[in-house]
Design brief:
Blueprint: E1 9-16, E2 21-27, E3 34-35, E4 37-40, H1 48-60, E5 74-84, E6 99-108, E7 122-129, H2 130-136, H3 140-157
Parallel strand pairs: 1-6
Antiparallel strand pairs: 1-4, 2-3, 2-7, 5-6
């Protein structure tokens, strides 16, 4: 039975330490494509914060709401963008769907944690200082989110 089409509403979650080291994961289907955690809603009525929590756990094994990472570590930036879906991945969506809405989040972890990757989705991970992480991302939106991270963290600490 074929998979249902992806819902064109997703999350981007920048995982970082207090020192602003950022976790990047390499896509299994595109060698050299480094990114933060991303993923689409599983159902139309799935709350977007729930999507973020689920995707972080699925892609990294990091449990938001667990002992190391409390729920309040997840920050909804209340920011979203719309972008054109790369033609490479359009087959995953319903016919005629060309754009996706991406909601931005961050989650602060206490240190550079070991992660458990979803092997069908990602092949490697690394922690980099935020500037280097931004340079490594293939996605302009992911790069922009990471470049905003220091200011977002500063605003939250006020």
């Amino acid at each position: 039975m074929p998979k249902p089409p992806k819902i064109p509403e997703s999350v981007l979650v920048v995982i970082h330490t207090p020192q602003l080291d950022v976790l990047l994961i390499e896509r299994a289907d595109r060698e050299g494509f480094w990114q933060s955690v991303t993923g689409s809603k599983e159902r139309i009525d799935e709350p977007i914060a729930e999507t973020a929590i689920r995707e972080v756990a699925e892609e990294t094994g990091i449990v938001i709401g667990g002992d190391l990472v409390p729920h309040e570590a997840l920050v909804d930036w209340h920011h979203h963008i719309e972008f054109e879906i790369f033609s490479t991945w359009r087959h995953r969506y319903a016919e005629g769907v060309t754009h996706n809405t991406e909601h931005w989040f961050s989650v602060q972890v206490p240190e550079r944690l070991e992660v458990t990757l979803a092997p069908l989705e990602h092949t490697a991970h690394l922690w980099l200082p935020w500037q280097e992480a931004a340079e490594r991302c293939f996605s302009w939106s992911n790069r922009d989110a990471i470049l905003q991270l220091p200011q977002r963290v500063k605003e939250r600490c006020r």
